[in-house]
Amino acid sequence: MINQMFKRLLTVFAALLFPAISWANAGTEGKLDLTDQPLGLLAVGIFVTAYAFVVLEEKLHLPKSKPVLVAAGVIWALIAWYCSQHAAIGPDFAANAFRHIFLEFTELFFFLIVAMSFVAAMTERNVFEALRAELVSRNLSYRALFWITGIVSFFMSAVLDNLTTALIMSAVILAVGAGNVRFITLAFINLVVAANAGGAWCAFGDITTLMVWQAKKVDFFEFFAIFVPSLVNWLIPAVCMHFALPKETPPPGKDNADVKFGGWMTCVLFAVTITITVSAKQFLHMPPVYGMLFGLGLLQVSGYFIRRHEIRKAAMNETPDGEAYNVFEIIARAEWDTLLFFYGVLLCVGGLATLGYLELVSTQMYGELGFTTANVIMGLMSAIVDNIPIMYAVLQMNPPMDHGQWLLITLTAGVGGSLLSVGSAAGVALMGVSKGKYTFLGHLKWSWAIALGFIASIYTHLWINAAHFS
Question: Tens digit of pLDDT for each residue in 233-258?
Fold first, then answer.
């Protein structure tokens, strides 16, 4: 029996990694059937090569958006060329398929632009720096700081993305760590797990949860059903690491940062924007991007008053808080590399779907192994491949799953990246800012504890959310 399961798993990974040598795709409306053709194999090779450059971003210092943008362009050029050579398909096929995927991306793009703009605005107004300074000044023990930064990260990442949360809280850890490598390593691992787990139970917490919400697979409030499983996912490894933490107290720091004028108003406006977005979706059936762009308008209006305040200070020969506030400069500070990477990945995966590969993988995974096993495997794969293409692939496959299974893939794709330091944007970013104190091997030593949390969170979801499964 174990041997049969092993063979089936090999079949799944063969379909994912080498789809051209797998079974032929039956073909569906709106998709080609090139899974066993040289052009299809070439497209897969281009995507794999581009993703290799993404994985090596820290070594090559090549922004991750560049290889996937080029790969997306080449893959769709191949599709368009193939269609133009076959009159039965017609040249409009590729254009219509591309346009459909691009429109899906556009809504997500503007949603993320607004969210990132609010984060940039709060950063510019010193909101997060004030939080760091407050924690530094409290003269807490290493263990207390470990738990406080973990708790804050878990809840903060439910509204902000895991990367932003990790970068903000890493500044706290590095400031109070006083060069204690053991504390910084464990606190960074805890930060990665907490940020990834916190982003799984709210539609705003991660791009993958946002994608599931946008696709209308799960309603906004239904995500809260995986709050407890997400909490379990973080708590188990955190408890395991607690006993390895130093018991001392780091030297005290100084509270040397204040929130600039308009900072708290920006926080309130972000909360209002979230409320408008959710309410418009639930009661007016408007897409989430409507509420977010509404909020961007409110941010721009508030920027007018902040700018007038700073101009008055300068006119009175007072020292201004910095350069005159400009909302358009704030928007320019959004994570454009991440946004363009997101575009490139969606277009690459969409191209492979158009060539027929996702239909093939869907048949082999969700048809042969069952929904639960397939969703767990997809979650494990997110420790190696970014969870964005994983989730987009699942949405493109669109297996006939119930709410419990859609919540399961949301959970596993969201927290699976914690198993390895390179499995999420948070882990990769922290390796960069830690200057050698947090490493791949240092994280790997605690992967067993993170795996315990991963397994426990799945069983917790299957148990407490049994009513969501049909």
Answer: 999 999 999 999 988 877 766 666 78
Integer Cα distance of 63 and 222 in angstroms = 35
Whole-number Å distance between alpha carbons of 206 and 272: 19
Task: Kindly tell me the sign of the dihedral angle through the C-alpha atoms of 356, 357, 359, 360.
Answer: positive
- DSSP annotation of 260: P
**pTM higher than the cut 0.90:** no
Among all chains, which residue has been given the structure tokens 């053991």?
182
Contact 388, 342 (CB under 8 A): yes
Q: Are 328 and 296 in contact (CB under 8 A)?
A: no
| Contact by Cβ (8 Å): 413, 387 | yes
- Whether 151 shows a pLDDT value over 90: the answer reads yes
| Residue 242: how many other CB atoms lie within 10 Å | 14
Tens-digit pLDDT profile for residues 36-84 = 888 888 998 998 898 888 777 767 888 878 998 999 999 999 999 998 8
Distance between CA atoms of residues 14 and 405, nearest Å: 24
End-to-end CA distance of the chain: 27
According to DSSP, residue 252 is labeled: P
